[in-house]
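Title: Comparing notes on inverse folding

I've been comparing how different people in this forum approach sequence design from structure. To keep things fair, I'm posting one structure and asking everyone to reply with a full sequence. Here's the target:
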């Protein structure tokens, strides 16, 4: 989808405890990631059942064709860092629920409107979002960012390349992570 040369920009867990009010408001990822381009796709991997009851991902088909403004709400129950949300109304009747069994995944572009409701089930809902970008992508304004080469070669040098971990939570790996997180 993204070509021969591929980086992972980020991998984040989205965990909702049983009965949690935590949710993710309607948003477009690429609006606030600080990238100069749209050569991106996110793989959302279900590590537990992602059902309508547990707050599965929801998408609005075709919404990737437009860029809309966002606002920060800083809502403590929103799993996004600043409670980012679209500054336009979303017609909920256009939304598609993406129900996934553990081990299944969905792919979405960073411009598609997406969200997830609170977990109203009696089980924890766990998902892992892995964000892939083409190696030719750049950061907007040249801000330093780290990514990991996962396929091909990096002929562009637009990101500081992260090294693969040496083991499970080694001191060296934790120190490298602290360095990346401090950027």
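Reply #1:
Here's my take.
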């Amino acid at each position: 989808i993204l070509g021969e040369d591929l980086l992972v920009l980020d991998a984040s867990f989205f965990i909702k405890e049983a009965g949690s009010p935590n949710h993710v408001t309607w948003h477009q990822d690429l609006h606030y990631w600080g990238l100069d381009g749209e050569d991106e796709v996110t793989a959302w991997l279900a590590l537990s059942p992602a059902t309508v009851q547990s707050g599965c991902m929801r998408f609005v088909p075709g919404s990737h064709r437009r860029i809309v403004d966002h606002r920060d709400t800083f809502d403590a129950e929103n799993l996004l860092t600043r409670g980012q949300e679209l500054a336009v109304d979303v017609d909920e009747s256009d939304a598609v629920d993406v129900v996934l069994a553990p081990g299944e995944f969905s792919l979405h572009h960073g411009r598609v409107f997406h969200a997830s409701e609170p977990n109203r089930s009696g089980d924890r809902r766990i998902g892992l979002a892995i964000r892939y970008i083409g190696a030719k992508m750049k950061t907007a304004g040249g801000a330093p960012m780290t990514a990991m080469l996962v396929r091909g070669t990096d002929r562009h040098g637009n990101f500081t390349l992260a090294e693969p971990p040496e083991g499970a939570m080694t001191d060296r790996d934790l120190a490298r992570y602290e360095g990346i997180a401090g950027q």
